[in-house]
Amino acid sequence: xxxxxKLPRPFRRMTQGQTExxxxxxxxxxxxxxxxxxxxxxxxxxxxxxxxLRRFINVYVNNEDIRxxxxxxTAVKETDKISIISAIAxx
Amino acid sequence: xxxxxxxxxxxxxxxxxxxxxxVCEDCFGPLELDYDYERIRHSLTKKILKSRPQTMxxxxxxxxxxxxxxxxxDVGFTPLIHASRLGETLGLKNLYLKNDAVNFxxxxxxxxxxxxxxxxxxxxxxxxxxxxxxxNLANAVAAQAAASGLESYIFIPEDLEAAKxxxxxxxxxxxxxxKNNYDAVNRLCSEIADEKGWAIVNVNLRPYYAEGSKTMGYxxxxxxxxxxxxxxxxxxxGGSLLNKIKKSFDEFETMEWIDTHxxxxxxxxxxxxxxxxxxxxxxxxxxxxVKPQTIAKSLxxxxxxxxxxxxxxxxxxxxxxxxxxxxxxxxAIKLLAVTEGIxxxxxxxxxxxxxxxxxxxxxxxxxxxxxACITGQGLKTIEALSERDYPIPVIEADYDQFExxxx
Lengths: 91, 407
Known about the structure:
The complex is a heterodimer.
Chain A: E1 2-6, E2 20-24, H1 28-38, H2 42-46, E3 57-61, E4 64-65, E5 82-86
Chain B: E1 4-9, E2 15-16, E3 31-35, H1 37-43, H2 46-51, E4 80-82, H3 84-90, E5 95-99, H4 110-124, E6 128-132, H5 136-148, E7 151-157, H6 162-169, E8 174-178, H7 182-195, E9 199-200, H8 206-211, H9 214-223, E10 231-235, H10 240-254, E11 264-270, H11 275-281, H12 307-317, E12 321-324, H13 326-340, H14 346-360, E13 370-374, H15 399-406
Parallel strand pairs in B: 5-13, 6-7, 6-9, 7-8, 10-11, 10-13, 11-12
Antiparallel strand pairs in B: 1-2, 1-3, 4-5
């Protein structure tokens, strides 16, 4: 399943300036695995040693943080709006 | 003259030039400002400090501007009050309140971070500024953008208190209500900062913005005559203020203006939005985000950006993070009003509520020098109080009716 994913500005250096990318997968983890296929090395930056997303990387499905859903196992479908946000600041 | 040297990643230590950057490109960790303290030591003495006007800019060497401030020149140096009546009620002999409820111009500690970040935005050449806000920051950005003639875009959750909305709208910013909570507003602003060439002060100017909070700590130390408090109680939303007050103490220690400090930092949250307090109690520093449900809307950040570091600061200092219910927040607002004549907003109720709890649990002892940070103004969250609690008699302009009231 091909899904459009919005990338944050700090990622764009690794994706040759692409602001969005079409990725294949049934879950967030599969999408991120496909991102690694397309842009090798990116997972080393966004995953910690224990293979979890680093705390500075936030993934949203239809504006909901995946930590309120099923984490990396959250299922996705073609019509979902998916965005990755690096380092939520604010406050 | 600028004493900042570079930005440095808090996680991996990689250094970056002084540009509008917030995130490390290697590990995505947050960037923090570093200074040449040796040079500051050579050019700034306590004597020079004391000769300067009583504003936050007397500490300008520790702030990240190249030149003089462009806006907010009169911000800061709010009163530090010896709270003897509140202290007596709680059983504390050395209690002080740092009162940013009367900060200039918009009555909260956010005036500090905004005068730094808008001045920096002007130095960088931005012409549009903005923020994601739970209210106080919105007021401060709207006011100081107006004062500097900059266009501003301000994003707030739809359900904020009426006074916080009007006290932004009056300055005629582009004020936008978002049908969601602060965390969603924040995420939206991250995307906006990525796409537009604007200075969203607490997003893409964050390293510079956050430094302004240090001035609250410098003022506490100077107003105490450079004595170091044993305990400081600080409200936590994103957790940044607590970390920055700690940094300010460390910096004055580097300057050898205070003794080595062993201050214990206490972080206060509302039980309805307590991700940092919860992590502390679980003995973890990983923050699990929450969906906020509290009257303390100014602290209602479910995914706190600096929560991880706040937990570490608190734990390393021997302090504690704790939280109080909405009921306790209102009781604390009332207690502060009747003992000290200070009307604070819900965030101040959180601070005083947790202070009371810490005294009751004997974490804070009667003789210790304790400072509680009051960060905002009660007039902005009047909804927290109920008129039912304050039955007010109404009479004709008639002396007999007045006499009758007294009996």
